[in-house]
Structure formats: C-alpha cells, structure tokens
Design brief:
globular, 21% helix, eight-stranded parallel β-sheet, three-stranded antiparallel β-sheet, alpha/beta
Length: 232
Amino acid sequence: MLNIADSVAAAVEPIHDGACVMIGGFGVAGQPVELIDALIENGAKDLTVVNNNAGNGDVGLAKLIQLGRVKKIICSFPRQSDSWHFDEKYHAGEIELEVVPQGNLAERIRAAGAGIGAFYTPTGYGTPLAEGKEVRELDDKHQVLEYPIHADFSLTKAHTADTAGNLVYRKTARNFGPIMAAAAKRSIVQVSEIVERGQLDPEVVVTPGIYVDTVVRLEAPKQVDPREEGAA
C-alpha cells in the first residue's frame, strides 16, 4: 500500500545506518534535492550510495559526503571540477569507491529490478575494471560477467504521482529514477503533484505504482545550483 508522507523528514525516516541508498539524478537534473537534505538531517551514517556521480559543489550528495556519512560510493563519474569533498575524503582513505561505466551502472540497476541474476557485457574488458571478474567469449567478443546492484532504499524525483503510486516524469528528470525505483526494496519519491487514480493517462506512466512505496508532495521543489557559494 502506498504511503503518502506528510513531509520529507517522515519520508526518509526509515533509512538506517549502514543502508544502501540509490539517489537519482544526472548531475542536478532530476536530483531529489529535498529528500537528500532530509537524509542529511536524518543522521544515518555508514551509507553505501549509488549515484551517477560523487556529488557537486557543497550541497546534496556532496554535503552528505563532506559530513562523513558515506562509507562507499558506486558511481560512473567520481572526478569532476566541483567534486572536491569526494576528492578530499578519497585521498584521506575515508570513503570507498567502485567505478562502474555508465551503461553498466544503468544495466546493473535495471537487472536488479528485473530479477536478472547476472549478465555479460564487453564493456570494461581489458581494463582494470574487469580485474577478478569472470570473462567469456560470446559472439566473438570477450565479455565480462556483471551482477545486479540492489539497494535498501531509492531516493528519486518525479513530476506527478497518482494515489496508486504511478509516476510521470518531466523531461530529463527521467534518467535513473525508473530503474532505481524498481531496484530498491523501498522506493521514496518526491513529486510536485499527486492526483487521484484514473487521472493519469496510462500511456504516459513510466514507473508503475507496484515499484513505489512512499511519495511526498512538494509544490515548488528547489533547483539548486551547486556552484553558488553558500547554497543550501
């Protein structure tokens, strides 16, 4: 049964120490800013975070890393011009890193949601990313065995939900959200609008409500520019 939370604090309250948390967004596009801020206030620590990158600037995921609450990050792009908090923690040996090529990252998350036990891909073969992994020759190519990435929770952002939990996204905010919602044991979604059942055209529903556990409505979500000094 869908939980419609009264606040972002209530939405993230179940997230506990040591949890694996997937966080949607491609940079700041589709990033669930308020849910991340609520996770910071929640106080959970020793988190494993799955994200496209390792945070931007001084806010959101970057702030969570700065506070020392992330023990491991699984991502595609850990090094950016504004990923200074990750850089500092990594060079100090205070955070673990698993680099995953972006296509592999998306497919490993999707595989978790689809119930796929493992898959082979040529991506990464012959590089350090394939060290220690099983390799087979399939279709005249060397392919690396990869396993799904499961999570305890996912934090994502959609535009509209109905009271059954079906989700519609807005433009590029539809990036990792759909597959992360499916891959997590408990998906938590912030939306701008909640409508009654039957008000969404089934043809435009991207994430079926079966994959959604909690939604929280925010009429005017923040659009944070991590380059702004002192942004919060």
